[in-house]
Amino acid sequence: MVKEVNLEELQKDAVEIFTSGFACSESVIYAIRKHFEIELSDDAIAMSSGFPWGLGGGGCICGALAGGTMMIGYFFGRRTPGDPKINKCFELTKELHDYFKETNGATCCRVLIKNYPDRNSQERKNHCIEMVKTTVVKTAEIIMRELN
Residue 24 is part of which domain span? Predict the structure, then answer.
């Protein structure tokens, strides 16, 4: 594992994999895993596959935010019941949440894409790319700051 990553390359890889067929949550996890060089199975990406479109199309939490949250949990979450380290994970997740909401105006997918009725339009994809870019960078910044 590395403790510092090139944020431009991280962002570039997240966008590249997003435009290649992964969705928002999968793209964030893929890029963080790759750039921090962590031993994380493809199963983690598969586990995030239900998040896009706000939990499988339900319109709730943005998948990019969910993917970032999963990665903060990977680095700072607890692995044993009752571990008080959960408090740090909550703090960092709230930081990501608040940043995302301030930057994008909402955390709910249906709100974030309401102006893009055609899910397959390039305009909607471009809008989501921007959220993937900012979220993967903020997630990495939080991780790097806390690891160092």
Answer: 7-147
